[in-house]
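Class, look over these structure tokens:
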Amino acid sequence: MTDYDFYIVPTPIGNLGDMTFRAVDVLKCVDIIACEDVRVTKKLLNYFGIKTQCISYHKFNEKERVDMFLKILSEGKKIALVSDAGTPLICDPGAVIVNELRKRNIKLTSLAGPNAITTFLSQISRQDEEFIFVGFLPKTNSQINSVFVKYKSFDTVFYDSPNRILKTLEAIKSIRPSCKVAIGRELTKLFEEIIVGNIDDVILHFTKNPPKGEIVGLVFREIEQKQNVCLDEKIKILKKRNFKAKEISIILSDLYDLNKNEVYKRILET
């Protein structure tokens, strides 16, 4: 095991087979495992025969645990941080202690491993690599609406719970009625499901089939319909003047501050 003092260790988001050899080795070798819920982590540790002591570390005790962990580290012991599932600090606790460790130049590292965002996006065809991740959405419709108005020009990825997702989709539909969405649930598990389509079809699907398991969602960016019509007209004009698709995409994206790849795709469809 590489000689660090503090390890950030991703754990499976569902399928225990996604646990890496290095993660198991680190969790066996450190002196303390800091975890969100000791009961949840113990199930994982028992599966892999790991006997390391666990100490709870969650969003309600992050600050008060800092002094304890710094004392443990000062004694020459090593700590690993895990969350209930996935990668710590990605919508999970860990920011407070990592900030304190960096202030004190304490050696820390993060292992590669499971993450719901990349697991989800690697199964979704998108225009390009750009996306916005907003974490768990706020609770009220007006707050949800403000998120998707703010980021309407970006593919926007979010987390949600199964009991809220239909309400969330209805809130999004109220301001983006023709948008395309993708919803993933139970990722890496036996009943994994990813649905991609217009928002009405996705709402209908989950109305008929109430979802279970944690949710990862994507609202695709949109070009306004009015703008589309105007754009199509300009594409036709430039085509008649024998401009090539690549040239047209550069001209229109520069003139109207549009995404070049989106314009290029529209040229091929026009």
